[in-house]
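Z., the sequence and structure:
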Amino acid sequence: MTWSIPLGPLVLPAQFLLLCLSAGLGLWLGERRARRAGGSVERELRWALLVGVVVARLAFVAQHREAYLAQPWSMFDIRDGGWSPWPGLAAAWFCGVMVTRRPSAKRRPVVLGLGVASTLWVVGVAGLLLASPSVQRLPAFSSLTMQGERVDLGQLTGQPTVINLWATWCPPCRREMPVLARAQAERPGVRFIFLNQGEAPATVARYLQAEGLDLRNVVLDLKAEVGRHYGSGGLPLTLFFDAQGRLQASRMGELSRATLQQHLQAIGVR
């Protein structure tokens, strides 16, 4: 199951909302503790949070720098979800300790805020992992490609498989499609399935022609069954299966070259 929470027209990954909740609660508790002593640590905690976020992003960019070199400005597009959480967490703690080194009266409220935020995030992520089924496999779903060929997803074992759930009306789906198309052309050892959700063949064909996308394995899911099977409330959703058909990673939201590369590593693709 892919955990996500709908907020009006938006569908946000549960881990992102967990991070916001953890940071917000830590900031509130730390500031509340400081105010009881007649002070304030809001500025210190905000700085620690900002430094943690920036370092988490920079660490991810450095790890996948080759994917960003072709389009350096894309490193500023955080919609791709590329973060390295542990360096960011370490940087937030380091900043929090340093900014309270001299005004030691602020140290306890800052440590309280960072401790609550860190603990809540770690426990929450662990809870989401434990709540997910231990082994998920390719769905028992059969449909037709745009060329009228029958495809049975449950039988697609033998090589790593990426299934992208998308629709022509979905802006992030459209933005990430060239990245996926390029990956399909460059990685013949990976099977890419473009599983359109709920649209007529003519609509899909017009979009592919207008965008000049030469994709293989464009499959129609007219009733959006696969999205419901994985508990997805929005698009795009990309699922990464190993050669044995076991789900190893998923991404709710837009992929960049770097985040695609990150998730391909989870299914043994280098």
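Strands lie at 4-7, 10-13, 142-144, 150-152, 161-166, 191-197, 218-221, 237-241, 247-252. The chain has two domains: 4-131, 142-265.

Let me know what you think.
H.
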